[in-house]
Amino acid sequence: MNGPQPWPVRKFRDLTIIQSPDKSNIVIACDSVGGIGSKPQDTVQTPARTATHFGARVPILEVLACGALPTVIVNTLGVERDPSAVEMIDEVRSLAVELGLDPDVAVTGSTEDNVPTVATGFGVTVIGTRDGELSIGTTLPYDEIYSVGVPLSAPAHILVPGDPRMPSIAEALLLARLDGVHEILPVGSRGIDYEISELVSSAGLAATPAGPNTIDRVSTAGPSTVLLVSISPAHAASLLTIRPDLPVELVARAVQTNPQPSTNERQHHEHQPS
Fold it and tell me: In angstroms, how far is CA 171 from the centroid of its own chain?
């Protein structure tokens, strides 16, 4: 058939991935929030800025985790621009700055100014790009898997932006750039153990539990307050350089499903930060 051809599109977990002819990737993630905010009929009352922060946090982390860099953040706000949307847009712009983006270029969206609204509703779509292959299924045998952050979720916990128990967006970006990091996976409502299984299975591997086992491994991590990081043992100590009080714990090791390690794999063995 003559004329332009559509680029291949595939799904991976909650991501939509479009691959260009030169093998670059466009990665799209989204999230939505309803009934959480400061309007009179919101089910959960919280500042609109807080709701926006955590609504945008999840898709931003999903894009970062696969090795792409967010380049555009779209906020579709089902509230009037003034006063409700003003602080919501400002929060999205702040997150763009954390990513090193120019918010005047990277942030776009719309508001609902045609009819009155009595409850908060909004969606966030994050579009990222990556030259070359994505970091999906790239965990290696004998990688150590660490939890960064602790599981937090409303209403059991009060969630506020900047809580020191979770990695910030800027810190997630630093994690992705550390030497020896092979893969990152945000933890959601199914908890750490479930996501460990997802992380290793996508690489054709299995996992063995490790570490002090002091972190809650089954509770929800809500808006991705925990990141799983698979890293070469020789580089694991660098996780402690992100922030001194950021919770970091060894939770598992990746192993082959038919464990007969090669010479190279035996050299890629146990070493953890202390």
Answer: 11
User: 146-176 pLDDT, tens per residue?
Assistant: 999 999 998 888 899 999 999 999 999 999 9
The model's confidence at residue 224, banded by pLDDT at 50, 70 and 90, is very high
pLDDT in tens, 200-211: 999 999 999 998
| Confidence (pLDDT) at 71 | 98
Report the distance separating Cα 105 and Cα 148, nearest Å. 31
Q: Are 154 and 74 in contact (CB under 8 A)?
A: no
pLDDT band at 261 (very low <50, low <70, confident <90, very high): low
Q: Is 180 left (phi over 0), alpha (psi -120 to 50) or beta?
A: left
What tokens were used for 73?
Answer: 């953040």
Tell me the three state secondary structure of residue 45: strand
**Ranges in the chain annotated CATH 3.30.1330.10:** 9-130
CATH of domain 9-130: 3.30.1330.10
Burial per residue of 110-147, b for 16 or more beta-carbon CB atoms within 10 angstroms, e otherwise: ebbeeeebeebbbbbbbbbbbeeebbbbbbbbbbbbbb
Q: Shortest CA distance to 91 belongs to which of 120, 63, 124, 115?
A: 124
- The CATH number assigned to the domain with range 144-267 reads 3.90.650.10
Domain with CATH 3.90.650.10 in the chain: 144-267
Give the helix ranges, DSSP H, for the chain.
Answer: 48-65, 86-98, 103-106, 169-176, 191-201, 263-267
Measured at the alpha carbon of residue 175, what is the angle toward residues 174 and 178, in degrees to the nearest 5? 90
Residue 260 confidence (pLDDT): 55
DSSP label of 82:
I
The Cα 57–Cα 186 span in angstroms is 10
Q: How close are the terminal C-alpha atoms of the chain, in Å?
A: 60
